[in-house]
Design the sequence.
DNA sequence: CAACAGGATACGT
DNA sequence: ACGTATCCTGTTG
């Protein structure tokens, strides 16, 4: 990393298919560069870009169908991009990073499906490694890197240092190393699974990222916790009364319901229906009413 | 009147 | 099958 002529840019994360850059890109790109997002605070994630070269993501050829997230379908896209824009404009760097990481995860997921390989590089066979290299080659418009690392399995790649990579590929070793690192980090994140994780002690960023990663549909309780973990944004509509005990209050029921509706693409969502779903958690032991029952106050049975 | 409780059913995965 | 979403009747503060 940090080799001369290279920097690392969040802009680089986006899926290469030029046609997947919709109008949204106009919303995201300028703020990202303005923020000088050159590295995202996600262990091991560096996003290579060579200076003053046209964006290699804009590969004209396309082997993948456009990957749209359900969140960005037509009925909510304007809202979503408006939200995004608002976040980018007035929210801290971490918010932008969150969005960016979400995109990375989606792209990895897409690649996995396309290539029919595991998300975790450690599980790759030699054939999988070659597939991944071909894919990366295509993404970055690299000349024939796939011949290197012949006969190496994912495990082998993962045990190699950046210097090893550079030995294999004089020019693109560090780039491939960084790219592999992204995959490994993503796999590591998926490892420590969402529910009742102690890993979420890592902070908002982890759950933020998972919330942007729609491979598994988000659960209502996760969504509520997510809002609660971003008090700077949502304390007006939901907040902790006692974080240690997991007791929280919904201050603006309509607002929370609307947010939930947006997330699930359920325009007709309201608090009546949302609260019914919360009540389903009673017998599952996920959420309950606190000992002293109060209006719009609930309690996570298992606090964070 | 809005929140609450919980049954019944539909729906998407 | 699971996790809601939707609709509903009845209760409570």
Sequence:
């Amino acid at each position: 990393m940090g080799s001369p002529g290279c920097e690392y840019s969040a802009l680089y994360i986006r899926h290469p298919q030029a046609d997947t850059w919709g109008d949204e890109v106009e919303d995201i790109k300028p703020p990202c560069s303005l923020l000088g997002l050159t590295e995202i605070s996600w262990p091991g994630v560096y996003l290579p870009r060579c200076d003053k070269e046209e964006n290699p993501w804009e590969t004209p050829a396309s082997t993948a169908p456009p990957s749209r997230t359900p969140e960005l379908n037509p009925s909510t896209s304007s809202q979503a991009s408006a939200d995004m824009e608002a976040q980018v404009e007035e929210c801290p760097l971490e918010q932008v990073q969150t969005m960016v990481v979400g995109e990375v995860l989606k792209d990895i997921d897409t690649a996995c499906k396309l290539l029919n390989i595991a998300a975790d590089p450690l599980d790759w066979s030699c054939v999988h490694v070659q597939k991944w290299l071909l894919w990366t080659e295509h993404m970055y418009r690299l000349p024939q890197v796939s011949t290197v690392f012949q006969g190496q399995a994912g495990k082998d790649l993962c045990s190699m240092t950046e210097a090893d990579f550079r030995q294999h590929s004089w020019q693109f070793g560090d780039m491939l190393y960084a790219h592999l690192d992204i995959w490994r980090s993503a796999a590591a994140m998926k490892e420590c699974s969402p529910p009742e994780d102690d890993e979420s002690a890592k902070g908002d960023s982890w759950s933020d990222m998972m919330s942007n990663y729609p491979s598994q549909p988000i659960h209502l309780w996760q969504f509520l916790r997510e809002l609660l973990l971003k008090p700077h944004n949502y304390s007006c509509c939901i907040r902790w009364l006692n974080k240690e005990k997991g007791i929280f209050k919904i201050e603006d029921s309509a607002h929370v319901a609307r947010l939930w509706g947006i997330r699930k693409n359920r325009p007709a969502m309201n608090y009546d229906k949302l609260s019914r779903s919360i009540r389903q958690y009673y017998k599952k032991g996920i959420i309950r009413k606190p000992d002293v029952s109060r209006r719009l106050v609930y309690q996570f049975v298992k606090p964070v």
About this structure: The domain at 94-190 of chain A is CATH 1.10.150.50 (DNA polymerase; domain 1). Chain A has a mean pLDDT of 66. Chain A is about 50% helix and 5% strand.
